[in-house]
Each structure stands twice: as structure tokens, then as C-alpha cells.
Amino acid sequence: MNEESDRRLGADGSRELNSEERSGDPASRDEANVDAGSRDGTSAGDEQPTDPGADDNEEPPAGDADATGDSTESTSSAPTPGVPDESTLENDDPEVPDDVQKYARFQKMDGAQYDRVNEFLRDRTYITAREWAIARLCADFRTDTGVEMTKIGENLPELVPFMTDTYSPQAVNQARSSFEDKVRTAGATFLYGAMCDFFTAEELDDVMYEATEVAKFLLEVEGVDLAVEDELEAEERISSVMREVREASKELREAEE
Fold first, then answer.
1. Which of 132, 148, 205, 213 has the fewest Cβ atoms nearer than 10 Å?
2. Closest to 156 in 3D by CA, of 177, 174, 171
3. Which domain holds residue 234?
């Protein structure tokens, strides 16, 4: 044994391995793998590592409901990004009543601005645009039990184009009361001017004519269609009444003297 082992020593004193020993050596196995890879046209460094968990993360086909555990119906009902879910939206606007939808006043004022309307009225009357609109609505929405303040206030923007905000019933009543007070005050002022002999008969007719023209214009804006014959008849009746008022007041003054 010793002599045979000695013969297997190389010239430099290294020991040669036999075939059994070479197959058990790790370095020898690496050389064998390199040689085999070279014959197959690939190198050991070109091999790609395999991830044992890769198959676990692979997504199933889009139409495979069993793989995902979700049905197609649940997937289609998912909310779309950027689009509000209609099922969660609340309808804050109450349904507009039929009589409000059919209300045809102030259609000629479509697109008009409140400030412009208010300026026009201020130059010719004592009332504001708010008081004018609400007075007209109170006359149109009057019932046997009173004026529908709540309906007028809640639907004010739908009823009058130049009114952009809703009103509470208290605000509607306040505007109605203000209109009434101004009419009474203006009426007393006008009547005194007619009775105190400040105006002549002709001047009083001019005052009545101007007042009638403004009133007719406001009625026409509201949608009232006045025939020419009706206008002339109304003007004549007003003038006749005012002449009677002037004559009666003159007789009253002379009797007191």
C-alpha cells in the first residue's frame, strides 16, 4: 500500500486523486459542470435563478372568477376614480311645485341683473326690485288662508329671474310689509298734492299721466298684455277721478274759510 501510494505522488510531491476521490471533490464537480455547460453552449454565469415563489404571485386571468374569489358583478360595480357615486349623493333640492313651474311672470326680465332693475325703480318709484317682485308674487300666490310665504321664498329664483337667493317666510313678509307701507305713504303724499291746490288741473293731469306710464310699463314687464282701448279707458277713468278729487277738495277748503 505504501509503495503504491508513493508512486501516485507527482514530481512536485502532490498527490494525484483517483476517480472515486475526484468525484467527491467539490472543485471537481464545478469543473465538470463548466465543461458540460460549455458543450451545451451556455456558461454557468448565464443561468437565471429561479424564484420558487414567483408562481404564487402570478395574477390569474382577468376572466377567471374562481381564481380571484370575486364575481364579475362585484368587479363591475366598483366606483370609478374621479366620478361621484350616485348612490351616496343626497338630493338637497326639493321638487319644484307645478304652479311654480308654470309661473310665467317676469319672463321679459330673463338675464336682467338685480342692480339694473333696482336702479330703474329707484329713479321712478319708492320701491326696490325686491319689494316689487315679492309684492307681485304675494298677489299671485294668495289663497283663502293667506299668502304662501314659504313657497314664494323657497322658489324665488325660479319665479323671478333677477332674484338669485331664496328667502325665508319672515324675509318675504318683511318685503311685503315694506311695499305696503311705501304705497300708503306715496298715496297720502300724492293725494295731498292733488287736494292742496298746489297743482293746476292741467299739471295734475300730467302727474297722473307720468305715473300711469310707469305703472303700465311695470305691468307689461310682468307679462300683462294691455290693449290700447283698455289703456285709454283706464287713463280716462283715473283722470276723471282725480278731477273730482280736486273739485271736492276745493269745495272743502272754501267751506272752511
1. 213
2. 171
3. 101-256
Buried b (16+ CB within 10 A) or exposed e, 23-47: eeeeeeeeeeeeeeeeeeeeeeeee
Instruction: With beta carbons less than 8 A apart as the criterion, state whether 157 and 164 touch.
Output: yes
pLDDT at 52: 43
Res 226 pLDDT > 90: no
Q: Which residue has the cell 269745495?
A: 251
* b/e map 50-60, b = 16+ CB within 10 Å: eeeeeeeeeee
Q: How many domains does the chain have?
A: 1
Classify residue 226: in a domain, yes or no: yes
Answer whether residue 141 is part of any domain. yes
Q: Please check whether residue 156 lies inside any domain of the structure.
A: yes
Interval 22-81: pLDDT, tens: 445 544 444 444 444 444 444 444 444 444 444 444 444 444 444 444 444 444 445 544
